[in-house]
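Protocol step 6 of 9: fold each sequence in the batch and record its structure tokens directly after the sequence line. For illustration, a two-sequence batch is reproduced in full.

Sequence one:
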Amino acid sequence: MVKTKDYIALFAAIAISESAGLIGSASSIQSIPIWYTTLTKPPLNPPGWVFGPVWTLLYAIMGIAAFMVWRKGTQHRAVKNALTVFGLQLVLNALWSVIFFGFRSPAAALIEIIALWIAIVWTIILFYKISRPAAWLLLPYILWVSFAVYLTAAVWYLN
């Protein structure tokens, strides 16, 4: 049975995940028209309008996955550890935009996004041990970040 506190927790999990996107947006909003548009982009670079909707959906899915793990009970060490690693990857997620757009450093962002990719894989492994559906929900996220690794590496190389 779903309780009111579950709805509140689900909303909070999604809001926390979406906040990483807000931090990233704040870092990138000024750099996109001034700096990013001047860079040479790789083949397969999607149009700019794609990123907002994709990330918004991914953050919501990430929040749902975290909620599914949270519901298993934070009194369990495995749940606490999984949510801690989830939080770490969320910080790394937000940090990528700060480094890439805010500091305008594709090289440093490439190193950082590799750390993010590792943290996501770690999160998926920990989530899988607690809730397989939660782990599967993160599959689109790791695929998109894998694509972002390609884009980041290509931007660094081409510029």
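Sequence two, same batch, same settings:
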Amino acid sequence: MYKALEHFRDLQDNGYSYDTGDIFPREGLKVEQSRLDELASDKNRRHRPMIRLVVEETPQKAPDPVVNVAPEPKEPVSEETKTEKKPNRRRMKKNAD
């Protein structure tokens, strides 16, 4: 997309008037690349750029929404596992004697 840098009349479009900031070419008009190059450079009647290329930023994709997933159910604990005593893993202190 191109925008007009200042007011000008397009002599190749029956004098169509572009104001500063207008999009070039107007809607429905097909323009050859050579014409775009001419108006974007100093190779025109005014010897200065009349339009400039405006790069449209592509909108960033929104991050996927966070979905709360329920944790998987744990396996049931058997009665044997409940009563088993885990070994004590504490370090033994050395006697200072």
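Proceed to step 7 once all outputs are recorded. Observation for sequence two: Residues 40 and 90 are 80 Å apart (CA to CA).
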